[in-house]
Amino acid sequence: MNDLLLRSVTLPDGTATDLLISAGRIARIGNGLTTEGTVEDCGGALVLPGFVDAHCHVDKTLWGGPWVPHSAAGGLAEVIANERRRRGELGIPSPDYIGALLDAMIAHGTTHARSHVDVDPGVGLGGVEAVREALARRKGRIDVELVAFPQEGLLSKPGTLALLEEAVRSGVENIGGLDPAGIDNDPVGQLDAVFDIAGRYGCGVDIHLHDEGPLGAWQFDLIIERTRVLGLAGKVTISHGFGLCGGISAERQERIIAAMAEQRISMTTVAPVTRPAPPLRAMVAAGATLACGNDGVRDLWSPYGTGDMLERALFLAQGCGFRRDEDIELALDAATHGGARALGLADYGLAEGCFADLCIVDARVPAEAVATRPPRTLVVKSGTIVARHGTLTN
Question: Can you name the residues that pair with 375 across neighbouring β-strands?
Answer without folding.
Answer: none
